[in-house]
Amino acid sequence: MPAALPMSRRDQVDETVKQRSGWLIPIAVFVVTAVLSAVILLLYLAPTPQSFLQEHPSPTSRADPIDLSVNGLSLKIPANFIIYSSARQGGPRKDVALFTTFPDFRGYSDWEASNFTSNAADSPVIYMLIREEVLDLSEEERLQRIYLTYVADPAAKPGPFGLTDYAFRDDSGYHGKDLFVGQGTTGPVVMLCDRFSQLVPNPSCLRDVRLKHGVALSYRFKRAHLANWHEIADGIGVLVQSFRRPKSG
Predict the structure, then answer these.
(1) pLDDT single digits (tens) 120-169
(2) Cis peptide before 103, with omega less than 30 degrees from 0?
(3) Please, are residues 151 and 167 in contact by the beta-carbon 8 Å criterion?
(4) Is 122 left (phi over 0), alpha (psi -120 to 50) or beta?
(5) Order of strands, edge to edge, in the sheet holding 73-78?
(6) CA-to-CA separations, 217 to 65, 128, 138, 224, 243, in angstroms, rounded
(7) How far apart are CA 232 and CA 249, in angstroms?
(8) Quick one: 21 and 67 in the same domain?
(9) Is the model's pLDDT at 62 over the cut of 80?
(10) How far apart are CA 88 and CA 80, in angstroms?
């Protein structure tokens, strides 16, 4: 019998391909799977474009009325009270950010720009937010159900400017704030005020007001104007009422 012939070059190539294909296919499957997993992970976890670029305040001196609505509350607000340009497009919104100044409660103007951009401890600017509200609590309900559960003494004590002063417990989430309650024209005025500190050199006071079912107003002013809390409450009330559109028909 003749001796076995040596393997031809073609047979060698075929054998090499067969050997390589045994480990190339699993690697290819692994790479494709890894790429698809990375794409899916990126779609789920990557920040949205809005998180990269937040809208910046862009006030205007225009005073033309803008028709908006928040959770069914119809509003007609002069453009110079609206902080962000996107809100000046009008239409339904989850919230609308506004500002004005004390004591005149006017909208933004170029000649008063420094007042509206100031963050000094005695800045006259008042920031407002009309928003959808899930809790839908009145000020009295907010006081009784939320704030008073965190105070050190529910009996409170007399505070400045005709207000009642409640001190929060040190272990509460409101530590570093004071709770002041006054009697306004239409009911209690409940305000959370930051305490002055090295970390908070220009403290503010915050009040939440229910406007209608599912809609609330928050406004914030510098604590340096706390003596004028009553005038601020009345002025903001009149201003917001002027924004509300009467129901047609």
Answers:
(1) 999 999 999 999 999 889 999 999 999 999 999 888 899 999 999 999 99
(2) yes
(3) yes
(4) alpha
(5) 73-78, 65-70, 91-93
(6) 20, 7, 11, 21, 12
(7) 33
(8) no
(9) yes
(10) 9
pTM above 0.85, yes or no: no
Q: Distance (Å, rounded) from C-alpha 42 to C-alpha 195? A: 43
Domain of 39, in residue numbers:
17-46
Provide the token pair at 29.
């499957």
For residues 171 and 245, the answer to whether their CB atoms sit within 8 Å is no
Amino acid, single-letter form, for residue 213:
H
Predicted pLDDT at 27: 53
pLDDT at residue number 22: 55
Whether 33 and 137 share a structural domain: no
Six token digits for residue 233: 């409450």
Same domain, 96 and 194: yes
The long-range contacts involving 9-16, CB below 8 angstroms and separated by at least 24 positions, are none
